[in-house]
């Protein structure tokens, strides 16, 4: 019985070929910070990431931004707000695909001070 | 929960499609392996069942492959289901490792259909089974280092699992037949080696991908793996029961054994389905500790 259990445990620790894991290594503005102005929004990854969709939202709705980085895989993504961001809280959401093909998504938030 | 991706409707759909895809791949490969290994020992109906299952599973595999392309495109697009048919998104998916894997999987499934052609078709189907196994080495963590070792271990693991899974339905069918007891006994003897390959390759892969055992605890990946461990333990228990108790009883002609054996094999099938679902969940929404 013990042998069976051990065999079972060993077999079950089976290959888990999961998704990859191009973590966001840092963002500008940093997540959860309060800043006085935002001239650029950027994210850095430890492996090339194809960023496909991005949205910046404030309590008043979506905020227009211009992408500097296209849809090609890149380690750094950059975008700029089309207009100066009014004081308030903002949330940046992104979706994309890691270099191993896995769908990835993430978000970060920041506050623009009065 | 550490290492757990957001689970939305599309992620659930992706998990279900992936689990069905895993099942289809294992049954397709396994059907070919069964009709190869037991070509002379199994009766004609069992061999026909194995071939039909292989062909049916290969066709399901091809359909699921197309479906998964759509789901992947939708998931990366941020547009919801509309993204599934977006040419640009589909192009991104095609350019990704999933595209390479799809070529191997698609070619493998098509080659498996050749099992319907006598003699030469069987060898083509065997090649197809290997191609389907190789397709799994083209995506995800199999692309990490040491890549060659990961690929070899994964192919061995999948072929061993397929041999087992693909044999369930034909063996279940033969339990009532006079030839059944000997066939099941012979399967049990080979399966011991198959399980050994499964265990050794699986453990080695887990070691390479996890980094450490301690890292498994407290992560979504670890919990998913524990769930899988539980079901695999039950599956191995059933297999052991069949080999040690039921098959010898069947050979001895004990009444009612065939029914018990068929029930046990049906439970094995259920366990396999749960294992594939757990694996699809782990590989879709969790990150192995080594990558956290």
TrEMBL record, chain A:
Keywords: Copper, Signal. SUPFAM superfamilies: E set domains (SSF81296). Residues 1-20 form the signal peptide. InterPro entries: CopC_dom, Cu-Rt/internalin_Ig-like, Ig_E-set. Residues 21-112 form the CopC domain. The keyword Signal applies. It comes from the Bacteria. This is CopC domain-containing protein. It comes from Jannaschia pagri.
TrEMBL record, chain B:
Residues 183-281 form the Copper resistance protein D domain. It is found in: Cell membrane. The chain crosses the membrane at residues 20-40, 52-71, 123-143, 149-169, 190-209, 221-241, 270-290. The keyword Signal does not apply. It is a multi-pass membrane protein. Keywords: Cell membrane, Membrane, Transmembrane, Transmembrane helix. This is Copper resistance protein D domain-containing protein. It comes from Jannaschia pagri.
